[in-house]
């Protein structure tokens, strides 16, 4: 795999995390740096770790795992998106309580958006990719793009109000469906 192909792969893998970061930014409206860094950091970390996990698991039982990973990602993203939709209709528009990003809220998103990266890791062994630089590149690209997406989403979210949370929830559900359909 060439360096150019690795860069393209890193950007492609980051897109789910970027879309979720955008959705979170829509909901946050005025994110604190701590929240944005936690989101981007977790997404970057998991996008980097999952290919390593896939690379290791490829040697043991890749066939068994590959059949269920789309269902796991679909379920997690759909549930989180549905929760956002539920909260958007239950919250009072006048209430301007900023959302707080926690490890508990980010961890399922980081796992769900990085499952496809585990599948990519399986191919690393077959293609004899130097894993360390590849996963570092994937993690850094995901971090940088996700960080920007949180702030971009918050700017759009300020203008959309409650509709931003609806859009964010629909984005998560849409990503889950896309993962499931392949």
The share of residues in extended strands comes to under 5%
**In the residues, how many domains can be counted?**
1
Range of helix content? over 70%
**Residue ranges: pLDDT <50 for 5 or more in a row?**
93-98
Shape: globular
The rounded distance between the terminal residues' Cα atoms is 23 Å
| Helix-strand category | mainly alpha
Tally the beta strands: 0
Helix and strand sequence: HHHHH
What integer is the average pLDDT?
A: 80
Largest sheet: none
Number of helices: 5
What radius of gyration results from the CA coordinates? Answer: 17 Å
Question: What is the gist of this entry?
Answer:
The chain crosses the membrane at residues 6-26, 38-62, 68-86, 106-127, 133-152, 164-181. This protein is mainly α and 182 residues long.
Labels describing this entry:
182 residues, mainly alpha, 5 helices, transmembrane, Putative manganese efflux pump MntP, transmembrane helix
Report on the structure:
This protein is an all-alpha fold and 182 residues long. It has one domain (3-181). Helices cover 87% and strands 0% of the residues. The protein has 5 helices and no strands. Helix 1 runs antiparallel to helix 3 and helix 4 (131-160) packs antiparallel against helix 5 (162-181). The longest helix is centred in the middle third of the chain and has 58 residues, at 33-90. The two termini are 23 Å apart. Mean pLDDT is 80; it is low at 93-98. Probably functions as a manganese efflux pump.
């Amino acid at each position: 795999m060439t360096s150019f192909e690795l860069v393209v792969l890193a950007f492609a893998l980051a897109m789910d995390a970027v879309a979720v970061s955008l959705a979170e930014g829509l909901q946050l409206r005025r994110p604190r740096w701590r929240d944005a860094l936690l989101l981007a950091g977790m997404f970057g970390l998991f996008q980097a770790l999952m290919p390593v996990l896939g690379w290791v698991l490829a040697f043991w039982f890749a066939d068994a795992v590959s059949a269920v990973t789309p269902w796991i990602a679909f379920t997690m993203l759909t549930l989180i998106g549905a929760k956002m939709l539920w909260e958007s209709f239950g919250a009072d528009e006048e209430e301007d309580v900023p959302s707080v990003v926690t490890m508990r809220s980010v961890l399922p998103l980081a796992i769900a958006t990085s499952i496809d990266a585990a599948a990519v890791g399986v191919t690393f062994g077959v293609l004899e990719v130097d894993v360390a630089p590849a996963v570092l590149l994937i993690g850094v690209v995901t971090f940088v793009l996700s960080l920007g997406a949180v702030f971009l989403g918050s700017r759009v979210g300020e203008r959309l109000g409650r509709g931003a949370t609806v859009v964010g929830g629909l984005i998560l559900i849409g990503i889950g469906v896309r993962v499931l359909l392949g």
